[in-house]
Amino acid sequence: MTQDFMEELWQDFILEAGEYVSMVRDVLGDPAAVRDPKRLEEAYRALHNMKGASQAVGYLKVSTLCQAMESVVSAAKRGGLSLETPHILTLGSALDSLSRLIQGEELNVGDLLKALKDLAEGRQVDVPSPSAPRAPQGETPPPGEPVAPADQPDRQPSPPAPQGSDTVRVRFSQVEELSMLLEDLIPLVLYAARKAEDLNQAAKGQAGNLRHLRELTKGLLEDVGSIDRSVKNLLDKVRQLSMLSASGLLRYLKEAASSLAIKTQKELWVSVSGGDVRLDRNVMESLKEPLVHLVRNSVDHGIEPPQDREASGKPRVGNLEIEISASGSVGILTVRDDGRGIDPRRLKQRALKDRLITPEEAEAMSDQEATELIFRSGFSTADRVTDVSGRGIGMSIVKETVERLGGSIRVESQVGHGTCFTLEFPVTMRTYQGVLVAAGGHLFSLPSSSVECSIRIERSPHPGMIRVKDRHLPLVPLGDLLSLKDGTSSKGSRPVAVVISSSGSSVAIQVDQVLGVHEGILKPLGEFLGKVRFFQGGVLLGNGSVVPVLNPSDLADSSPHGSSAGQGAQADQGPKRILVVEDSVTSRALLRNLMTSLGYQVTTAADGQEAWEVISRDPHHLVITDVEMPRMDGFELTRRIKGSPALRSIPVILVTSLESPEDVQRGIEAGADAHVPKGSFDQGRLTSLVSDMLG
What we know:
Layout: H1 3-28, H2 37-57, H3 60-78, H4 85-102, H5 110-120, H6 172-203, H7 211-241, E1 243-245, H8 247-263, E2 268-273, E3 278-280, H9 281-302, H10 306-311, E4 318-327, E5 330-337, H11 344-353, H12 359-364, H13 367-371, H14 394-404, E6 408-414, E7 418-426, E8 431-439, E9 442-447, E10 451-456, E11 465-468, E12 471-477, H15 478-481, E13 496-502, E14 505-511, E15 513-523, E16 535-540, E17 546-550, H16 552-557, H17 564-571, E18 577-581, H18 585-597, E19 601-605, H19 608-617, E20 622-625, H20 634-643, E21 652-656, H21 661-670, E22 674-677, H22 683-694
Parallel strand pairs: 2-4, 12-14, 18-19, 18-20, 20-21, 21-22
Antiparallel strand pairs: 1-3, 4-5, 5-7, 6-7, 8-9, 8-15, 10-13, 11-12, 13-14, 15-16, 16-17
Keywords: Kinase, Phosphoprotein, Transferase
Domain HPt: 2-105
Domain CheW-like: 407-561
């Protein structure tokens, strides 16, 4: 057999095996199915087929593990074994190991094989780790674990590509390159259309001898229209090449939920729908991991243990529904559970305890605003950090990712009855529709998906507020918000308010004019700029100018009823002051220069003791500190700051090489507001945190 043939065979196996793993996980994740002989038969056949396929391509460990799992399922299918929690947990661990082996990882499955054998023979076992490392080279393999022959090692094939009679294999990078080339044609069409229109206007009203010129310009305009339609049709066809079915994403989320349910010993039925919806590959890749955060959060925090559900009059088995749909160019994903729901009073109490809000802010918060606290970075209701939750960053990552794509997220919850998250996002990252506005002599674009309406501003008895239908909303002048030189001036006419909504919050943005709706290609800011508050990219207009695209979430947070960071930005005049505490000269210089470049006034200290002396006599707006330092470490410095009535409101960010869950927990207990690891130092995340905390 040729190498090319074997490569195709391996790819087919990975695709087929993934489907078999999903089938088995569906059965194990359904408490009713593990007691239904017909459903157990489905799992048994899936394992049997996977065993045969793995033998054909030389995946001996996969074959052996499938055989051991078959024995357990077979005993249950015959009625000789009842699948209880230890059995399901062990089978779930084996299934996780199967997934990793199929993808080419090297694992030592000896403990799993022994545990499965004991279970099949009716002996009690401890649940083994699903990810035990490979035995060191030269070590004797565990008894019963076959060794792959030297001339037939376990394979490590490349990821699979779907094949079929009506498909062709194309590298994604080539599709991206072709798409970008087509995008570059659009400005040329816009320029030609503008010139043709100018010629047409010049020809109007002239003498009869210019009739031929008018006919030429009219023909030019028609030609430009045809080119425009052809380019857009071609671009749509190319974009479709990079559009993928959402079924793979749904399967991935379902497996993540079912796996966690098994791990946390919860009984859960997971249903998915919308697999026929097609999404841009870039959108899907961007959303995948944040959505796993969201789904795992629903299982871990939302779904109650079976005994708790029964005690409250609910069925033992919880329900989690994941649905994807599309309306035009907007994708909609909902994650709905029937769990304990979100208690806004408990969230307020926890936020007060963690000093994320003041008592005055808590008093003024509505239940919906309190529920939105779950999206704040550093906020968590977990009492301890685990590998599932407790760090307070998962939900903030979900919100940041969706908004970076130009979408929004909202949450609805009822205590005792469940929670529903709804995400809206573009099905492709390239198409952009916006509302063009003018303020302070400059042009800006607002994403159409976030704009509710625009109204003329009438005189209001409540300064800083505006009545929109039956609501009173904060009114924020865009020119003042962006510190434009000319401010926001109506130039003799009444200014306009554009009402925008983001993540459940609405605000009216005062501008000079609304110039209409436009379409274009949204270009992100890029890695050099990272996150800049109020902006998410730029869009090219027909006259060749680039217009900044505003970030609806930042605008909503800037209102007097938004985040404390937004209030601080309005109230404080002059640069905010940051204390950087770091014993490494290089790291101290890096942080100082980074914060200075953002416009902050920076003071430095070489250790915690020096920092405490500085901040005791001269309070700053924020502290960025290392942990491991002489005389006084960062944990102790944080405890002292948070223990001082005069200083406790100062945010503290830990930037440290200590990244273990225990160290993160120590930082939380000390009162730190955020934790940024040095090992994977993310400059954009640090600047975003500082911006969110200070404005």
